[in-house]
Amino acid sequence: MAIFEHSTARDPKRYLWTLGLIAPACALFPAQLVARTGLEVFWWIGPIIVFVVIPLLDWAVGIDGSNPRDADYEALSHDRYYRWCTYLFLPMQFTGLVIACRIWSSGQLSVVDSLGLAVTLGVVSGIGINAAHELGHRSEHLERWLSKVALAQSGYGHFFVEHNRGHHARVATPEDPASARFGESLWAFLPRTVLGGLRSAIALEGERLSRRGKRWFSPANHLLQAWSMSVVLFGALILIFGYRVIPFLALQALIGVALLETVNYVEHYGLLRARRADGQYARCSPRDSWNSDSLVTNVFLFHLQRHSDHHANPGRRYQTLRSSEQAPQLPLGYAAVILIAVVPPLWRAVMDHRVLAHYHGDITLVNAAAPIRDLSDN
Q: Measured between alpha carbons, how far is 135 from 128 in angstroms, rounded to an integer?
């Protein structure tokens, strides 16, 4: 009993983190839910949970501004319970994918229901990239490999390289393809970040291999390792379940990537790091990422919304991330603001004045799209 009390006192959310496994569970049980209830809407359970239930729970439960104590940091960091909360995501994620392929291959679902299942798998795939994000920041060899495994379902293996070595170095600057500019719509941002991130990852990995005296086509190439996992995964599923699964595998991967990059869009929209006296960008601070302390989404996404502290201190594990008074705050949790982001006029009405307020009305301080910056210079 003393151990239980001590662990919960150290982290009052300790046992809530298992709720992060609801996402992969969405891929495991839609067929059973449809069979038991007769409600075909459960093929769409992924988007229903993420974009309806989670925002409503955020509204009902509210904000969590509590931070771990400095004295508990080391104990929390080394507590392997938190690692298993992310490790378990992977077998559930891939089991759900296999079940979905079996259902798609049967040809028994209508087109609408098959699309619903693909969207559900896409949501799981996108949130799986978040699990890969947490694992990919770790120094342990196993966790870095598991990060690449988690990315296999989305086919987005280059994220492992670009996020860690590109995005974190250039975040909140015009040079970063994953940092959305003030005035840039989500639909303009998506092709720019996808293509820019891919080019950046290829360049970064080529430079790393060159420094080590290795060729591009080397077993040490992180991109080839990650992409090979996707080839093996998709190839095996197509071989086992047939050609019927191909369009649905492609659709769920596309949705997963779009969900990830939409999150990138809301995390850094319009924010720009300050310049030092020597002209270089200042070190990333909590002021350079949008934050949210909506409790339910934070638990669901392993504290991804405490993004300001993550960029300021990328070595911290999710359970130790803190809320900062310096960080600009989103009006709602990620699950809700993603829905706002898909409607550019609504997004700008909600967010543009918040960006300007963060910089005390000085538009020259924001990471602006070129026409807007030119206007401010005249």
A: 11
Select from 297, 293, 281 the least CA-distant residue to 339: 297
- Alpha carbon 235 to its chain's center: 25
- Euclidean distance between the first and final Cα of the chain, in Å? 68
- Give SS3 for 69: coil
Dmax (CA) for the chain in angstroms is 68
Contact indicator for 346, 337 with CB cutoff of 8 Å:
no
pTM over 0.85: yes
| Angle between helical axes of 222-241 and 246-268 (0-180°, round to 10) | 140
Q: Is 158 helix (H, G, I), strand (E, B) or coil?
A: coil
Identify the helix (H) or strand (E) that includes residue 253.
helix 246-268
Question: Would you say how long the chain is, in residues?
Answer: 378
Q: pLDDT tens, 21-46?
A: 998 899 999 999 999 999 999 999 99
Strand partners, 159: none
